Amino acid sequence: MKRFALFLSLALAVSSCSKDDDTASSQCMFDVVFSAQQFVNGPSDELRINHLTVENDCLTIVFSAAGCTGDTWKINLVDSESSLDTDPARRSLRLVLKNDELCEALVRKEVSFDLSILQDHMANSVSLLIVNSNDVVLYEY
């Protein structure tokens, strides 16, 4: 019985450690979409980006748009599928919003995107230009 209790304690300890080691992608809400066509021609309903932060592998974007609740919005972070050969490399991304809500309230949302797919294994960082805010953030990995 003591061996079983010891085994159970060790199993729980290992299990709790592995939860702490989960990748940031499991904490991010969405993945980045790669589409030059959607970058240029995707929905461009009006929004205002209020704040950008990068923590671990997640880019968190706080933005506002007119709507009722924002529950029906379709949101993507779209990569242009190209990068500038600078140091660090620069990628252009656009927050794409499809908003069919007809209310005029100002709704504020916070979303996060997994950046790990943007990692260049020849470098340890990439500069991200969020074109509909004209802000540049540095993603270091």
State the total count of DSSP E strands.
Answer: 9
The biggest beta sheet is recorded as: 5 strands, mixed
Number of helices: 2
Alpha-carbon Rg, integer: 19 Å
Mean pLDDT: 85
Catalogue the unreliable spans. Answer: 1-25
Largest sheet strand order: 2-5-6-8-9
Fraction of residues in helices?
Answer: 10-25%
Share of β-strand residues: over 45%
Q: Distance between the terminal alpha carbons, to the nearest Å?
A: 46 Å
Shape: globular
User: Structural class of the helix and strand makeup?
Assistant: alpha/beta
Q: What order do the helices and strands follow?
A: HEEHEEEEEEE
Characterize the structure shown.
This protein has helices at residues 2-20, 36-41, and strands spanning 30-31, 33-34, 48-55, 58-67, 74-84, 90-98, 105-114, 125-130, 135-140. It has 141 residues and is α/β, with parallel strands linked by helices. A five-stranded mixed beta sheet has the order 2-5-6-8-9. Strand 5 and strand 6 form a beta hairpin. The radius of gyration is 19 Å and the shape is globular. It starts with a helix and ends with a strand.
